[in-house]
Amino acid sequence: MSSADRLNTPGRERRWLPRMRMDAEVFGSFAEGFARFMGTASFLIWMSVLIVAWIAWNLLAPADWVVDPFPFIFLTLLLSLQASYAAPLILLAQNRQEARERVSLEHDREVAAQARADTDFLAREIAALRMRIGDLATRDFIRSELRDLLEELDKDREADGRDKQAR
After folding, report:
1. Which parts of the chain fold into alpha helices (H)?
2. DSSP readout, 74-107?
């Protein structure tokens, strides 16, 4: 069977090794905790103490008790192994942090867009209220209109009084 047929044919691919299934969230939390711990002063201090103790033991111990003689090849292997596991875990933690920041940024954008829409709506409402207030009669306008009406009434009364006297 060609590789193109395998891609087009549904089915299960046989694996020689069983596939491990891990909860990505649990492993990601572990990676973040590990990366967070590796970035602390206590980790650096304990790592330095361990390395100094390893070197001191292998330099000062009796020949029968020496685990790793002078070039400290085994110590180098252990530190390389630690670094080879630390780097991917740190990268995984950084990727998760970036994903969280992306979600947070998207949420912030949505909140900002909603706030902008609310602000625009309120600005339109305030403008409409100002226009309506401009159309309302003010106290001074009503007083002047009432004065004019009173003056007209007085003139009409005077005119009616003259008409009554003239008859």
Report:
1. 3-8, 24-38, 41-60, 73-135, 139-166
2. HHHHHHHHHHHHHHHHHHHHHHHHHHHHHHHHHH
**pLDDT beyond 90 at 27:** no
| Residue 137 CA: distances (Å) to CA of 62, 142, 145 | 106, 7, 10
Token pair 């110590």 is found at: 75
Higher-scoring residue by pLDDT: 133, 114: 114
Angle (deg, nearest 10), helices 41-60 and 73-135? 180
Q: What is the pTM of this model?
A: 0.56
> CA of 125: how far to CAs of 69, 93, 120, 136, 138, in Å?
83, 48, 9, 17, 21
- Alpha-carbon gap, residue 36 to 96, rounded angstroms: 13
Rounded distance between C-alpha atoms, residue 90 and residue 108, angstroms: 26
Is the pLDDT at 5 greater than 90? The verdict is no
